[in-house]
From TrEMBL, chain A:
Coiled coil: none annotated. It comes from Cohnella thailandensis. This is Sugar ABC transporter permease. It holds the Pfam family BPD_transp_1. Residues 93-311 form the ABC transmembrane type-1 domain. The keyword Coiled coil does not apply. One of its GO terms (biological process) is transmembrane transport. The chain crosses the membrane at residues 33-51, 97-118, 231-254, 290-315.
Length: 324, 576
């Protein structure tokens, strides 16, 4: 029966395949359920992600909130000029890139390492405990986390006490960790790892479960030890996930977060803690300088866009899996 | 089948979200004045006040919306409070008060962008924006028509209010002085504070100069090496940084004019952020730090941590403004009230200056010209609002809003003096004040300034009335005041000189003006360099100071000072 229909199909004169718009409409009807389901999300995306782009016009105006659009004064690229000639913005840009970079590298390395190690743990109870403990900090809000970090690093905090106990420093010489500007990036990196490492492993652990156990058995037969199995089976197995996440994260390189820097920052470490988001808040919004804030936001978006596409392109060139 | 179900589910979700959206919109528009004339029925229940100015008799009940740009209090209808109810009976007007939640500029910005406002608004720090957007209506004609009491109370300031904002009155600031000046017996303003036990142990010495004060703190810590004491802390968190940067001004003998010290005779306004006064103050802190007497964490702690330290009994002294340490001081005082021995840890204010001569810590009669309540262009019936304000400014209602009801919250003796019994004072806790409306009407309305005097000689503010103040003292309070030979804390300090421009920081500055930019940049610089200077090794202090001077020199300080002098001259001219 099946053979017959196949035969019939092949012997019939081929119907002209619909192309272009017709093909599109045909597919649309065929997949109407899927399309219908995606409509709310497209509408959401349009309203919240595309309509606000209209506000970019503010960056080119001498914007007065009370005036209607037609009465605004247009000033061209004046605010961009102001932005890029502002020393503080350049410092903020440097800090943003540095902290994102630290976050990216540390975040990936620690999360993947922890996922690999957890995968090798055979005792289920122990594994569960480690996993839960490691991702608990993720659920603490930054306000609370910052409080914990401040207390830990205070002159009478546990770290200074430990250093004294080991005899590394004398009483009265306690470090004011958050007061050392150049240490801020390190403190930020360490806090971010502490807070997010467990959470970030979840996706890798999920990817690892999809690796065919037969591969491990075969490798074991061939005499591969644990490290070799990790290197030759687990890592290549989760490579697509790693690359997709990497590309996405590179797109977020100018988003180094706001809360940790805002909450842990103070006058002494401002040269290393102030990132673009804080700059926008301080010099844009808090002073009602909306055009400057918008200009900085536009700059961020455009750069992120370029970064995302370059990373994706690079992955394609290297023959790796990619985002789109 | 499953698919169909899924689709139906999706459709339901979408429909629901659509409904939710439109609901949201409706709420948004309802919040605006549309529900004002909601209950026009009860007109007969509002009797006209007997002494009402020539106005049309009984009135419909109306509700106006009222936005207060200061966070932290409960939203309510004024007629839910006892005072508000009485005022509603007189005028038929109720206010629905909404307080700020979140960021002021965002909230006000949204109002401006959508061009819809509550009927009455206190934009607090965002007032320049609101005025620039043309949101407030000019009140001159309304006051002329409906405001005999407004004229009586605000009359002396009209010219200045007009001069500040281009010839018209757009809002009523709070606190015009009426009658004689009645000083605050408590110290709500700046002072150098020290634990009472320190003074007790030292035999209640007169502490007048910074050197004496520092020595007092040093000696005490040296005598108690086992207690793990902190000599001094300083508040630096966020916008409260001025608690660390303002002392040089006070130490030099000036009141809190903000960024300038104003000479009373020449009216010269001098900034002090980069002056020798500041250098001397920071050097003092630097020395304390070198001796291990200054708490390093001062520069990283937030406000809550600071308050927690003040209540820990470990901090010997600090500089701050009374209103900022209220929370800590109240905790300590409550403890002392329960247990006399705890009185040692309550902080006592001292008038400390560089040279120990004349101090000017107490506020002179002030006029904060850039804060106030205005009527917006969205208001349906501005006349009713003005009439309500005018009615509130009648002396009997000023007594009502600050003293309450005779026999309930205050008594009058045979000489006509107001006082409160011990039971009444005990009754007036936070919950009662809220229910009664003392809290709602405490500030934020056109009203007499706190230091005003009523026409019969009583103080407007119960807390300022000597009879009431005496009642509030604990044994410990009485002892220490007696040792210093004073009746009130304020008597420790010199009388304030007359400064019509006070406080100079309230002279309006436009957004984005050179003055504002100067202030922002100065703040950035001081926040960066002051910690460095204080925590530096003493040998490095001079070098860092020179570096700071170089950076500070880049600002147009001369321009800022000239601008201030001109503004102050204008105010003095108008005040004459």
């Amino acid at each position: 029966m099946e053979k017959n229909t196949a035969l019939a199909a092949s012997t019939m004169t081929p119907k002209p395949q619909p192309t272009g718009l017709r093909l599109f409409l045909k597919r649309l009807v065929q997949q109407r359920m899927l399309v219908l389901m995606s409509v709310p999300f497209v509408v959401w995306l349009f309203i919240f992600k595309y309509v606000p782009v209209w506000g970019w016009t503010i960056a080119f105006q001498d914007y007065q909130p009370a005036l209607p659009f037609k009465d605004q004064k247009w000033v061209g690229f004046h605010h961009f000029d102001a932005l890029f000639s502002e020393d503080r913005f350049l410092i903020a840009l440097r800090n943003t890139l540095a902290m994102s970079g630290i976050n990216l590298v540390l975040g990936f390395v620690t999360a993947i390492t922890l996922a690999l190690l957890l995968n090798e743990v055979r005792k289920v109870a122990f594994k569960r405990v480690v996993q839960t403990v490691s991702y608990l900090p993720h659920f603490i809000s930054w306000v609370v986390a910052a409080g914990i970090i401040q207390t830990t690093l205070a002159p009478d905090g546990i770290i200074n006490e430990l250093l004294k106990w080991f005899g590394a420093i004398d009483k009265g010489q306690e470090y004011l960790f958050l007061g050392k500007a150049e240490w801020f990036w390190g403190i930020f990196g360490a806090s971010s790892v502490w807070k997010d490492v467990g959470w970030n492993t979840i996706v890798y652990l999920a990817a690892i479960t999809s690796i065919d156990p037969a591969q491990y058995e075969a490798a074991e037969m061939d005499g591969a030890g644990r490290l070799r199995r990790m290197w030759y089976i687990t890592l290549p197995g989760i490579r697509p996930v790693i690359i997709v996440l990497l590309i996405m994260n590179i797109g977020y390189l100018l988003e180094s977060g706001f809360e940790p820097q805002y909450l842990l920052g103070n006058g002494m470490n401002v040269d290393y803690s102030e990132n673009i988001d804080i700059f926008v808040l301080k010099y844009g919004l808090q002073q009602f300088n909306f055009p400057l804030a918008t200009a900085a936001g536009m700059f961020k978006t455009v750069v992120s866009f370029v970064l995302l596409f370059s990373a994706n392109h690079l992955a394609k060139r290297m023959g790796q899996d990619r985002l789109f | 089948m499953a698919k169909k179900l899924l689709v139906a589910g999706m459709a339901a979700v979408m429909a629901m979200s659509a409904v939710a959206c439109s609901n949201g919109n409706n709420n948004g528009s309802n919040a605006s004045p549309s529900d004002a004339g909601a209950s026009p029925s009860a007109s007969e229940s509002a009797p006209a006040s007997e002494s009402a100015p020539a106005s049309e008799a009984p009135k419909d009940k109306v509700t106006f919306t009222f936005f207060n740009g200061v966070a932290g209090e409960k939203d309510l209808n004024t007629n839910e409070t006892t005072i508000g109810k009485l005022l509603e009976d007189q005028t038929g007007v109720n206010f629905k008060i909404e307080h700020l939640v979140g960021d002021l500029n965002t909230k006000v910005g949204t109002m401006i962008a959508s061009n819809t406002y509550p009927d009455v608004m206190i934009p607090d720090a965002a007032i320049e924006e609101v005025l620039k957007a043309g949101a407030f209506i000019p009140l001159d004609d309304l006051i002329e028509q409906y405001g005999p009491n407004i004229k009586r109370v605000y009359g002396p300031y009209f010219e200045r209010m007009r001069a500040d904002y281009g010839g018209k009155i757009y809002f009523l600031p709070f606190g015009p002085q009426v009658g004689d000046y009645m000083p605050d017996p408590n110290i709500n303003q700046g002072a150098f504070w020290v634990q009472r036990r320190v003074l007790k142990e030292a035999g209640y010495p007169q502490i007048k100069t910074l050197d004496e004060y520092v020595k007092l703190v040093e000696d005490f810590v040296a005598k108690h090496p086992d207690e793990d004491l902190t000599g001094m802390v300083s508040l630096t968190h966020d916008w409260r940084f001025f608690a660390t940067s303002n002392p040089p001004m006070h130490l030099a003998g000036f009141p809190n004019d903000g960024n300038v010290m104003v000479d009373v005779n020449t009216l010269d306004a001098k900034t002090y952020a980069g002056s020798d006064e500041t250098k001397r103050w920071l050097k003092t802190l630097n020395d304390l730090n070198a001796k291990g007497l200054f708490d390093k964490s001062s520069f990283v702690d937030n406000y809550d941590q600071y308050i927690a330290k003040l209540t820990s009994h470990k901090v010997v002294g600090f500089f701050d403004y009374g209103w900022q340490i209220g929370n800590a001081q109240n905790v300590l005082k409550d403890a002392a009230r329960k247990d006399q021995t705890q009185d040692d840890f309550v902080y006592f204010p001292l008038p400390v200056t560089f040279d120990g001569t004349k101090d000017q810590y107490l506020d002179p009669p002030g006029w904060t010209s850039n804060r106030g309540a205005g009527i917006t262009k969205s208001a349906k019936d501005p006349a009713r609002i003005i009439q309500y304000w005018d009615n509130l400014l009648k002396e009997e209602n000023q007594v009502l809003k600050s003293w309450g009801i005779k026999g309930e919250t205050y008594e009058v003796d045979d000489k006509g003096r107001f006082y409160r019994t011990a039971e009444q004072i005990a009754k007036l806790d936070d919950a009662f004040n809220e229910k009664f409306g003392f809290k709602t009407y405490d500030w934020d309305w056109p009203q007499y300034g706190t230091s005003s005097t009523l026409s019969d000689g009583n103080a407007l503010a119960p807390g300022y009335q000597p009879e009431v103040f005496q009642m509030s003292l604990t044994e410990g309070d009485k002892t220490i005041l007696e040792k210093y030979g004073v009746k009130t804390y304020a008597e420790m300090f010199d009388t304030p000189e007359d400064r019509p421009w006070f406080p100079a920081w309230s002279i309006p500055k436009e957004q984005g003006s050179p003055q504002q930019i100067w202030e922002t940049k100065k703040d950035d610089l001081t926040k960066k360099y002051f910690p460095k200077l204080v925590l530096a090794k003493p040998a490095e202090f001079e070098g860092i100071w020179a570096e700071y001077q170089k950076e500070f020199g880049k600002l147009d300080t001369a321009g800022y000072e000239t601008w201030y002098k001109e503004q102050i001259q204008k105010v003095v001219e108008v005040a004459k």
